[in-house]
Design a protein that fits this description.
Length: 214
């Protein structure tokens, strides 16, 4: 990958499992550093299920705003790869997407990429439920993402890196005429065809990069 991302860019990694998302965040930051791009891995906040049930909505919003501030401060000096973005935290804390502050959603749209790691087949009910809330939140506020399947950390890294490259290529090749796409749909969420998901991701990125008509 050529250094088409750099200081000020944010890559957010969403996952119901910290054991999946945090190794990918660290690995991506290291790979950017190996290519001469200053990068920072931020571990993020990972509330336990008990905390998610106990935290008041106002406190959850305050925590998400604090996390947004930390990310924005870090991006002044480097590319930031973050495990769990502020709106992901709100989903974890069961704050409905309709209540997410517009400022946090707008900041999320400013991220260079958002990657979502689905639960493994052996994941328990809690992880499956959280993954559903994350996807529902994306659909509600129309945030595009790349879904990264994989059996282990090495596969996650390989496929995430390919998704980043595909997204960057799509931005350079975006058509000049406006395109209108439907909001993201998740009826194929169990599909493991990376080419299919790359096409979806490419279309979503193209739509974001093209101004709306009228």
């Amino acid at each position: 990958m050529t250094p088409r991302l750099g200081t000020g860019s944010v890559i957010a990694v969403w996952s119901a499992s910290a054991a999946d998302r945090e190794p990918l965040v660290d690995a991506l930051a290291r790979r950017f550093m190996q290519r001469g791009i200053k990068a920072i891995a931020l571990a993020g906040m990972a509330p336990t299920n008990a905390l998610a049930r106990q935290l008041a909505p106002a406190d959850a919003l305050a925590q998400a705003q604090a996390w947004r501030t930390q990310i924005d401060q870090a991006r002044h000096d480097a590319l930031v790869v973050v495990a769990g973005s502020p709106v992901a935290l709100l989903a974890q804390w069961s704050v409905p997407a309709e209540s997410w502050p517009p400022s946090l959603v707008a900041a999320e749209r400013g991220h260079a990429f958002t990657l979502l790691l689905p639960p493994q087949d052996t994941a328990g009910h809690d992880e499956q439920d959280l993954d559903g809330r994350l996807r529902a939140g994306f659909a509600t506020v129309s945030l595009p993402c790349a879904i990264i399947h994989g059996r282990d950390a090495a596969q996650h890294l390989s496929r995430a890196w390919s998704a980043l490259q595909a997204g960057l290529d799509a931005r350079e090749e975006a058509p000049a005429t406006p395109r209108h796409l439907r909001a993201p749909a998740w009826n194929c969420e169990r599909c493991s065809d990376p080419d299919c998901e790359h096409r979806l991701f490419t279309d979503l990125i193209a739509a974001r990069q093209t101004p709306a008509a009228g």
